[in-house]
Amino acid sequence: MQEKWWHRATVYQVYPRSFKDSNGDGIGDLKGITEKLDYLEKLGITAIWLSPVYQSPMDDNGYDISDYEAIAEIFGSMADMEELLDSANQRGIKIIMDLVVNHTSDEHAWFVEARKNPDSPERDFYVWRDQPNHLMSTFGGSAWELDEASGQYYLHLFSRKQPDLNWENAALRQKIYDMMNVWIDKGIGGFRMDVIDLIGKIPDQEITGNGPKLHDYLKEMSLATFGNKDLLTVGETWGATPEIAKTYSGPDNQELSMVFQFEHIGLQHKPDRPKWEIEKELDVPKLKEIFAKWQLELGVNEGWNSLFWDNHDLPRALSIWGSPEHYREKSAKALAILLHLMRGTPYIYQGDEIGMLNYPFKDLTEIADIESINYAKEALGEGRSEQDIMASIRHIGRDNARIPMQWNTSPQAGFTTGQSWLPVHPDFQEINVASALADPQSIFYTYQHLISLRKTEDWLIYGDFELLDTEDKVFAYTRQYQGKAYLIAVNLSDDTQPFSFAGQPEATVISNTDVASIFQNQMMQPWDAVCVAIRY
Ligand code: ISL
Ligand code: CA
């Protein structure tokens, strides 16, 4: 197996709108990110996944792009982007751009032309039909929108301002590859590919994910763009199984470095039900089963895992799977230790490193996300109460992750000198970067330690994974590499749990607790998490 820089990297996701505002308009921007590179360097991360900063009418906060080669004015200029790239690269931090090519904005020049002129080549860059079928939009309602001028319907698997591109069209594919090369030439470190498993769709057969030509397109893309460059490419693939993930990330397949799989995220809602039907408690045995399956099936010669708890589309993992009220700091460290010591490249969502939490949204007036707003409209129409709807949104809505980053105790948590676009969390006096940096016991330093371990510990990068048979609420596994072995054990509950281990614990690598007492008493206290070198 060939070593890659991204095997050792820890990626930090920045949601630009909510990271740091540099000019007081209440919206985070590129200059704000550049200002905070010292902070990210201190954390130790070596790559940033930057959510979209391209020109966009912002119907879906930038995941609706109207010009791939221009920067949205609210985020700054192309000069600001280049400054961010330079400053980051100087610090050994690569910038991974968000590549949103399943769809564009309806304000993209291609779509404007396609709509205006049905005989134009651009018309076929999108998907048009005389009659809609049953395909539904992720954001509610039919996936087909009538274009009155031509009497035809266009496909949008997301909002009606996000028309789907037609990947069957070779000229369109070439335009996308050209655009990707422009960004590669600017010195970026790779791409995170938005809903990439949808590009092989066959609308007439109502096939959306994992269409038959998906992997042909990716191989073609790789050959035309990043294939011979040393870049990190990660696909967002909701429908991936380990088998499918091997096709994408198998070292000989010439597709992607890795994909995001979402099987564990499925535990947030009722089995096979919409995300709004929430599951209140984490099914820990199921979580163990899912993670172990991915760890074992994606062996180092077969592919590569990505590891994440949350992102800009998901609630804070700490809020729904940790113990925010009783053990906020300890459970945040436990979740971090559990995830980062498995095999794969970890992704940290901004604010997780200080233990930020879901927001206590009161009513619909505080909600900005199109997905939540559309869901609320639909549910109200079906006669459900606002109270009920808010309970779901408060638990799982995307705005939870999108509230401003909490930097310090000054007004607006130091995010902006103006009025922030989403409310600042009322807990910012306690939970903020300045306080975390000042406290050597804070969550921040657990993350810093985990990130630094990747840089030196080969066992952590390449070691074998084995799940141990333990109490339901204890997640324990070993990593073994070249005669060395390590035990990672985490109590994912508010209760003490019995825990016995046959081997001999030697040195502690990292923990959030009194390690000796676990092995002496054969008991784990609530949210205890430990990694020790062991002898069998
Ligand atoms: O989280 C989700 C599942 O209900 C969806 O909100 C989300 O749309 C899905 O995860 C796909 O996400 C990506 O593509 C969307 C964009 O809104 C998301 O922000 C992006 O991450 C459309 O571009
Ligand atoms: Ca700003």
TrEMBL record:
* Enzyme Commission number: 3.2.1.70
Q: Which CDD domains match?
A: AmyAc_SI_OligoGlu_DGase
A Pfam family of this chain: Alpha-amylase
Q: Which SUPFAM superfamilies match?
A: (Trans)glycosidases, Glycosyl hydrolase domain
* Keywords, in A-Z order: Glycosidase, Hydrolase
Any one GO MF annotation of this record:
alpha-amylase activity
Q: Which GO terms describe its biological process?
A: oligosaccharide catabolic process
Query: What region holds the Glycosyl hydrolase family 13 catalytic domain?
Result: 13-402
Question: Which reaction is recorded as catalysed by this protein?
Answer: Hydrolysis of (1->6)-alpha-D-glucosidic linkages in (1->6)-alpha-D-glucans and derived oligosaccharides
Q: SMART domains of this UniProt entry?
A: Aamy
Family to which this protein belongs? Belongs to the glycosyl hydrolase 13 family.
The role this protein plays is: The physiological substrates may be short isomaltosaccharides.
Protein name (Swiss-Prot/TrEMBL): Glucan 1,6-alpha-glucosidase
Annotated source species: Streptococcus merionis
